[in-house]
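Incident log, structure service

09:12 report received: a user says their structure output differs between two submissions of the same chain.
09:20 pulled the input from the user's history:
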Amino acid sequence: MSVLVYTESENGKLKKAALEVASYAKAVADAIGGNVTAVSINSDNNDDLANYGVHKSLEVSDEKLQKFNADAYAEVITQAAKKVDAKVVVISQSANAKYLAPLLSVNLSAAYASNVVDVPKTDNEFTVERTAFTNKAFNHTSLSTDIKILGLSNNAFGLKENKVEMSKEDFSAELNDDHFKINVESVDKNTDKVSIADAEVVVSGGRGLKDPKNWGMIEDLADVLGAATACSKPVSDMGWRPHSEHVGQTGKPVASNLYIAIGISGAIQHLAGISASKTKVVINTDDEAPFFKAADYGIVGDAFEVVPKLIEKLKDFKANNA
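09:34 re-ran on a clean worker, output below:
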């Protein structure tokens, strides 16, 4: 029985999420008995997938697929799934993957389970554990279709090395003009910064920073921690920071291992967007700020006093432990 995993890349490099879904796909294959095949699109080097349990890499190289196109990408993955007779298709929970999921579900007549956090139970039926109500609860969902599509919640499984021998094969899907009826007009600018979606650590700022000129200490703390920078909705609405950094229910979700919120009160929409993060730290002068109820650690204090000291201590720690 074959498990197909779609491994996303960016600028020709596999994303961290690609290695996580590959790790998860290997665990699924072990549970149901089978091998893992990965399909990647315009990725320059897929060798690392062998370290995470992928037995076969289907490699698509097509100039027309340089920009994400949900219809075309879904058709590529559909044809790859049919080629290897996949019974389970694993994708991430990235924004692009969420566009792909319903299209794949229709193309493959497959049930789709999103926000999956564990390997399926297959004793009597195929059942997966999923998060619900913005990660405040879990449910168990049974899938009865011949082919199942699983969307792995970011950072739910982690990277698990499991080296296997991997073969490679060029793969070309049959695409026509109908698959490119929707054109991509714009994409996020490429930067050398860590993206919010892939970051292990995120440092986020809110209106408590008082002025965009004070954003330097957010970036300094992020640099020390090797973190991505993010912000609350009001900050992006005021134009202090780009909307690509806006975290929350109406922005981007974050599932980092550490999320540090500075000067963010903790509106319910913001908390919904970071609920999947494992450890949450808040720094705020208002000890009644809602964020303190959701945080694992809280510092009641002025960010302009706390953050510089925190940066200084972290630099000292790194220097003494280099």
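09:41 both user submissions now match this output. Likely a transient worker issue. Closing.
09:42 reviewer note: The CA atoms of residues 212 and 238 lie 9 Å apart. Helices lie at 16-32, 70-83, 95-108, 216-225, 233-237, 268-274, 291-294, 303-320.
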